[in-house]
Amino acid sequence: MDQESIPSTKFSRNVALTGAGAKVSMNYLKHYGKRALGGKVDSERLHERNASAIYKTFSEIKGGPLKLAQMLSIDKNLLPPAYAKEFAQAQYSAPPLSYPLVVRTFHREFGKSPTELFDTFTQNAAHGASIGQVHRATIGDRAFAVKVQYPGVAKSLKSDLNFIKPIALQILGLKESQIAPYIAEVEKRLLEETDYSMELTRSIDLSRRSGHLPNVRFPIYYPDLSSPRILTLDWIDGVPLDQFADSPSTSQGERDRVGQALWDFYDYQIHTLNVFHADPHPGNLLIKDGQLWVIDFGCTKQIDPAYYRKHFRFLDNEVLSNRALLEECLTEIGVFYESDSNELRKNILEICAVSIELLGRPFRNGCFDFGDESFIQGIYKLGEDNLQSRDLRTMKGASGDVDGVYTNRAYFGLYSLLARLRCRVETRLPDWLQTVSA
User: How do the pLDDT tens digits run along the chain, 438 residues long?
Assistant: First the structure.
């Protein structure tokens, strides 16, 4: 069913979020009350009820809360399974807004209705997502994807995130002091995502600069049919990457070709351009005629050169084999404080050494087989172990530079997609590290 309205004021959105928080709290009270009385409790059922209540509210108010659910669902290690399953819906669809609200947005942005700008315009959304929904339109023989932003998303984003922070902390079992810098980084990126004029500029620029990559394609964008709240680009009749990967008819050769294109795309943007597509979920990547189409640059991340050198220095074999050098590099990115005990430093060093070896393995092999399930399962297990680590949960320092939030997210998403493709890709260290690590 299409939504006839969306809470757009700070008050109405806070009321909706308060209701979700109250449902979660009530479920916890019932759960622990039953346990205190000696009754049999089902923790998984508790998570299912809470996940359903939270996602229902997030999908109705859309914007930042729904986008955060989408981000969290990509990393299986961050959430209990019930939340990951429920939140995964945000990767593709949310209840769409009714057509009259779409028309209202067009009148506000262009002073015209959709059918005054296009020959045809579907009243029903083809896709509903977190920040906006997509309609199919045509002018003559050319088909367009028209992304229309939900009302009130931009101006309510900051208050939404402040309101859902306690819910997120409760789900993740973390303290506010541990995630405050990262919430600020997420807020910054999400605010950028609500500016479709910025997305238009970045999309055109990054598509042009990455257009030479083999088997990587980009749609054309249309400035005259776009505005701060409406974005128009070519309609691409492709298959979402996860459906392509899961199809039994997809050959190994096709998997390897698409996987190589995906690896090359991220490798070039991160290590050459130092700015990259930071939202690697399957809904943003389509396969058409054996080529990878990147259709959404709403979330991008510019990497500071100083941060880039510090972060990717961990791929240097000498850093991995020299504990003193590893400790120096970890201190440089903010993992350690001078007041940390020797025992804590030793334990964190060992945890980081294992993580760095595993996560850097594809770079060091020359040709890497992501079809080896032990690799991605090892990453999942590593994440679970780290979440349970008392040393990591009680350390005073932040777990790395905030610039790593989206860099790490990009690589986790990339590894997950390549593992789903079960592909073999040619890899190498960044050029500036090859002579160092030789």
Answer: 444 545 555 545 555 555 555 455 445 444 344 444 444 445 566 667 777 776 676 666 555 566 666 665 555 555 566 666 666 655 555 567 789 989 999 999 999 999 999 999 999 999 877 788 899 999 999 999 999 998 877 777 776 666 666 666 665 555 666 566 667 777 788 888 889 999 999 999 999 999 999 999 999 999 999 999 999 999 999 999 999 999 999 999 999 999 999 999 999 999 999 999 988 888 889 999 999 999 989 889 999 898 899 999 999 989 988 999 998 888 888 787 777 788 888 888 888 899 999 999 999 888 999 999 999 999 888 877 766 665 555 554 445 567 788 888 899 889 999 999 999 999 988 888 865 554
The reply to whether 164 and 254 lie within a common domain is: no
The answer to whether 243 and 298 are in contact (CB under 8 A) is no
| 352 neighbors 411 (Cβ within 8 angstroms) | no
Give the residue from 151, 107, 78 showing the smallest Cα distance to 380. 78
Together in a domain, 250 and 319: yes
Host domain of residue 437: 240-438
82 found inside a domain: yes
CA dihedral 26, 31, 35, 36 (to 10 degrees): -10
How deeply is 265 buried, as exposed, middle or buried, from its count of CB atoms within 10 A (0-12, 13-18, 19+)?
Answer: buried
Q: How many domains does the chain have?
A: 2
pTM of the model: 0.78
